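Researcher: We're teaching a course module on how sequence relates to structure. For the next exercise, students receive a sequence and then see the predicted structure as tokens, so they can try to spot secondary structure elements on their own. Here is the exercise chain.
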Amino acid sequence: MNNVENKNDLNKMSELEFGKNKVEMMRYRDNSLSYKLGFGGLAFSILACFVCLNSFNPHNVMTIFAIMLNVVILLGGFLCIEKSKAYSFGGSIGLVVFGAICGARIFWIPLQIIFKNEEYLGMTITTDNKDQLTYLPTDGTFRAVLAIVFLVAAAALFIAAGYIGMQRSRKLTTYLNSIDNKKVGGN
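Model: And here is the predicted structure for the students to work with:
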């Protein structure tokens, strides 16, 4: 019954009224698209982290920095995803920043694995041992390209989530400010 009433009410509304009602509903609904895209970005960032950490020499000092950077992306990314879910403009900007960081990470470990393959590549979990199940080929170039693909996907998803979050935040803020102005002007 509600669906029939809602459809009839929506058909009677003009485009302007329908747009206002859609923005009005943003006050009560979460920004689920930015939320889902942000979690996709986190997932691809974690996959890239696993491939990169499995590919380079663990005795290198930069290993600690790589691990700490991934922890910051994981925790900060989750915080920004939660904020953008509530239409926070700052949280959406944070997602774009994490997308840029993931894009910049392409030029660090994956490229070093490709160009300094012998000296930078460490012992890996995936070896050619016939008794051990291998998930990745031992070729460093393949693993570097796989990490690049994951990082590009993470960057694209983070940036898309941030952009959509910023657009929706602006739209909701403009609408809420117009309501406040009407209240002030009406009194």
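Model: If you want an answer key for the exercise: Helices lie at 2-12, 15-26, 32-53, 62-85, 89-105, 109-115, 117-120, 140-186. The radius of gyration is 23 Å.
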